């Protein structure tokens, strides 16, 4: 009798262990199938089957942000068109702090990053970028009247000011390279608040974002004219794009296939982007590739494409 009970307990224990093992394997498989690879277990197949893609965003206007209960913005509008053509009708979002966007992507918390993220060499080591989609300039949000007369990056280097930058953003890198005193903020709204409260003398961000911030607030701030930052004599040519896991080549290729005709037709690009404040100035030049920006030789890019500061 005792032996029978022991045998039954052993079988129950083994069965429970098998269930737990299968559950663990299923969980791992779910992450793997949802986050990498090509073919039947790929992210592309997963989102097509579900009819939904989950994109990470940083809440930065006019790229990707919540307007009430609606996820919107220029990169979201672009995603809706492209993923729609791939048979994925619903674009959902996960709001994430800037420094967590790529780590969360590689951990499988979402399918792509839709935040207009600049294509930089260190980021290219961690993730894969779509075709360059938005050209970047820099601007400052400053108190009304621009008391420190900030006009370009050199003017910041020469001024005795404290600059707010988004943690991990490209302007943060500029500041580190040029020893500009900074405070880091988690979002564009935090940067606006820092300037309005006097905790920072200015807030550096992309020109389009700074313009959007200034136009969308009644606080006593204004946007400077946009410029291409020059660091150590080199124009900082930059462009942003959708971000994918490195293993998601099938999804990246499918996305680029639908994106390419839009980038070859300025009017088609403007139809999507112009409602959010983008202009021809942000339209990527012909010949610019993610690979060029990943290599990081900005002088070479400027020379080859005839871009200037």
Describe the structure.
- It is built from 13 helices and 15 strands.
- The protein has helices at 2-35, 43-50, 74-85, 101-106, 121-124, 153-158, 170-178, 188-197, 207-215, 249-263, 266-273, 290-295, 298-305; strands at residues 52-57, 65-67, 70-72, 90-95, 112-118, 128-129, 134-136, 138-143, 163-166, 182-185, 202-206, 221-223, 230-231, 234-235, 238-244.
- It is an alpha/beta fold.
- The strands form 4 sheets. Strands 1, 4, 5, 6, 7 and 15 form a 6-stranded mixed β-sheet that branches.
Supply database-style keywords.
6-stranded mixed beta sheet, single chain, alpha/beta, 15 strands, 309 residues, 44% helix
> Low-confidence parts, pLDDT < 50 over ≥5 residues?
1-35
Report the sheet with the most strands, covering strand number, pairing sense and barrel closure.
Answer: 6 strands, mixed
Shape: globular
Question: How much helical structure, as a percent, in the residues?
Answer: 40-55%
By DSSP, the count of extended strands is 15
The CA-CA distance between the termini, in Å, is 88 Å
């Amino acid at each position: 009798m005792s032996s029978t009970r022991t045998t039954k307990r052993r079988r129950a224990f083994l069965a429970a262990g098998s269930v737990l093992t299968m559950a663990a394997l299923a969980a791992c498989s779910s992450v793997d199938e949802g986050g990498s690879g090509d073919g039947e277990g790929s992210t592309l197949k997963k989102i097509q089957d579900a009819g939904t893609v989950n994109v990470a965003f940083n809440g930065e206007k006019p790229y990707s942000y919540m307007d009430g209960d609606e996820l919107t913005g220029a990169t979201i509008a672009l995603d809706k068109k492209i993923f729609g053509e791939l048979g994925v009708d619903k674009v959902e979002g996960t709001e994430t702090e800037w420094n967590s966007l790529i780590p969360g992507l590689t951990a499988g918390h979402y399918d792509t990053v839709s935040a207009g993220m600049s294509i930089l060499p260190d980021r290219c080591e961690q993730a894969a970028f779509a075709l360059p989609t938005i050209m970047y300039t820099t601007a400052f949000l400053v108190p009304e009247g621009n008391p420190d007369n900030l006009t370009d990056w050199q003017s910041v280097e020469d001024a005795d000011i404290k600059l707010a930058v988004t943690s991990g953003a490209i302007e943060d890198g500029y500041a580190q390279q040029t020893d500009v005193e900074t405070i880091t903020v988690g979002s564009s709204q935090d940067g606006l608040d820092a300037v309005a409260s006097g905790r920072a003398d200015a807030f550096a961000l992309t020109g389009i974002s700074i313009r959007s911030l200034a136009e969308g607030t009644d606080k006593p701030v204004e946007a400077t004219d946009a410029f291409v930052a020059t660091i150590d004599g080199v124009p900082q040519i930059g462009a942003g794009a959708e971000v994918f896991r490195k293993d998601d080549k099938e999804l990246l290729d499918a996305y680029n296939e639908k994106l390419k005709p839009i980038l070859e037709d300025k009017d088609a690009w403007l139809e999507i982007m112009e409602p959010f404040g983008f202009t021809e100035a942000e339209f990527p030049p012909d010949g610019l590739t993610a690979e060029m920006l990943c290599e990081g030789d900005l002088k070479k890019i400027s020379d080859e494409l005839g871009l200037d500061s």
